Amino acid sequence: MKKIYFLTGSQDLYGEETLAQAEKDSLEMVRFLNEKIGDIAEIVHTPIVKTSNEAEDLCVKASADKDCIAVIMWMHTFSPAKMWIRALKALKKPMLHLHTQYNEKLPYDSIDMDFMNLNQSAHGDREFGFICTRLGIKREVVAGYYKHDDVIAQIRRFAHAAEGVDFCKGMKVAMFGNNMRDVAVTDGDRVESEIKYGWNVNYYGIGDLVKIANSVTDAEIDAKMAEYTDKYEMDTENIDAVREQAKYEVALDKFIAKENAAAFTDTFQDLHGLNQLPGIAAQNIMAKGIGFGPEGDYKTAALAAVLQKIAAGREGATGFMEDYTYDLTSGEELELAAHMLEVSPVFAASKPKIQVHHLGIGNKSDPARLVFDGIVGEGIAVSMVDMGDRFRLVCARIDLVKQPKEMPKLPVARLMWKIVPDFKTGAAAWIYAGGAHHAVVSTALTTEDIRLFAKLTDTELVIIDEKTELNAFEQQLELLDMMAKLKK
Q: Which InterPro entries match (predicted)?
């Protein structure tokens, strides 16, 4: 079980009675938070912090605990911030500064200086906040009474983001083949990815997968086919092509388990030994929470795995998607997003159909794939790009809509959406920001989730939403470039 340490600040000047009451209050708060947050991570109560040594010991302990994904800091009384300097410099875990207090309301009839000395969060949290700012610590500040639903929702969002950051550490991404030839935006610095995020990205020859696929038994293929017919509608007579995909998925499952990979990529330019480009195989695996990126796009594969982890348990869908083509009817512009084959069935509005069609790229046999129309609702599209001297996340608000007409001759899964705030602004902003044609789309996450992940990983973020205005947006990008050069 993952943990979040709860640190309560005070000092040794208040006497045993006050400190004992602060300890009791802190423990009660932790019990309550565990009722509300404990399904994500256990909130671990720690002794009241009274000295710099105690503060440092707890931060060192949290940083060394592999099961600890974050800390929550709260100052019950005044807690001189110089005593936190060594502790905060030693802290290596994401921090939420909870600006709250034990009591919701003031006891107007009985309030005295003893009450004031005990309940000084308005005082102590400002002192603590200053030293965090002075030290340049990236953290999330949540203000409000800790039992209120909106505050709990913010803490839960932080916990999910911290879970995603923790998931990054040591996450393995397997690249079958390399990046698609001559393509720029899907490429990136794999060494820097591991330094910054913990993503261990490595190349594997497609022969490694072919060897496993050649050892798959008919019984294993039969079991996978039974899964397909249970989940999907068989809409083809070319069962051999579907069985070929089932064989690939069994092989991929074995490879992923053996390598403990959380994400993978392939490319149609490197399929030696395979008869088809993986279609259903990749689609079905994505539905299990494994990240995927086509054409060697390891950044999208890794980001998909992380955002699927953050979104786990929430309503909605999350997965890889590609910008493809537009309907540019004036004032009613729509984007049609799809890919050659690999769209996760989590986006399906109805039961997907298994079909086999010709694929005019890759020079392989006709691959089996899932075909469906996409879900509707509010969502986001998130792209990670390598700017050379830093990574950038581009997050755009989108509104997924029902396709206006049938597309009987388009044999792929697809989504359609309206670009926010409007086509001209949203599309131009995405291009100005250098956003890729590959993205992770989610109806489970919001821009707030991406903002938190970006903050906790110190990743540059630009958001495109209903407030976006191009002149200000371009100025923001110029400032970000200037800041990056100054840091360098």
A: Ara_Isoase_C, AraA_central, AraA_N, AraA_N_sf, Fuc/Ara_isomerase_C, Fucose_isomerase_N/cen_sf, Lara_isomerase
